[in-house]
Amino acid sequence: MLQETTAAAAAQTGGSNAAALSQMGFGNLLQEMVSNPGHYAVSWAVLLTLTLMSVLSIYWIVTNFIKNVRLKGTSDRVISTFWETPNAQDAIRFMEEQPRFEPFSKIALDAAQAAAHHQRHEGSRLVESLNRSEFVDRALRQGVTRESSRLESGLTVLATVGSTAPFVGLLGTVWGIYGALIRIGASGNASIDAVAGPVGEALIMTALGLFVAIPAVLAYNFFTRLNRVTNNKFDTFAHDLHDFFATGSRVGEVAKR
């Protein structure tokens, strides 16, 4: 009789434990948040914040990926075509035909416009205060800075999401455990089926925060590396453009002579 009672108690305990484990999923948490939104106001705020962060992160990851793919496919062609075109006017016309997202053509056009503007105002106070080399150099610096800033669009969002999403999820976990402990204390039931469910549901928020943060951190590091390489190409191209518009000699011409 005692063995039967013990077996029945063990079966009942095992069943309650299984039921408690079944209540630790995200679906059960979402169901309780919908059915009783007042008790889960902070959890709703955390969930909506993480959802917004995830949407922004995905948007900028996709946008920057497309931008870098297009840039990689056009940058070398634009640079080589500019230097290989014999006539300077044809080279500038080729740069004007490039799409708006192409940065190297915009830097070259800035230098060309600065050189042309300086030439049109020869004999004026502008030429007296700044020579051709300094005027072109200033235009190139502004162009490189502008295109570098455009290249970094969205990285601030990715860095912010990567650094704050885990803490947002942790806030949801701490507040969820706090509320679960209050409800457990009020009911006086501290069994595993009463504790595991609410605590497990609260821990889901931390997991969601990490799920949002990890892709953002990886993408931020990846795009930062790509931008560093592209910025180096900006600087190299700008130096060559400065020599060309300041002296009139193309890259490699002096060596050939």
Automatic annotation (TrEMBL):
Alphabetical keyword list: Cell inner membrane, Cell membrane, Membrane, Protein transport, Transmembrane, Transmembrane helix, Transport
Cell compartments where the protein resides: Cell inner membrane; Membrane
Membrane topology (UniProt): Multi-pass membrane protein
The keyword Cell inner membrane appears for this protein: yes
Family: Belongs to the exbB/tolQ family.
Oligomeric and partner information: The accessory proteins ExbB and ExbD seem to form a complex with TonB.
UniProt protein name: Biopolymer transport protein ExbB
Organism listed in the record: Agrilutibacter niabensis
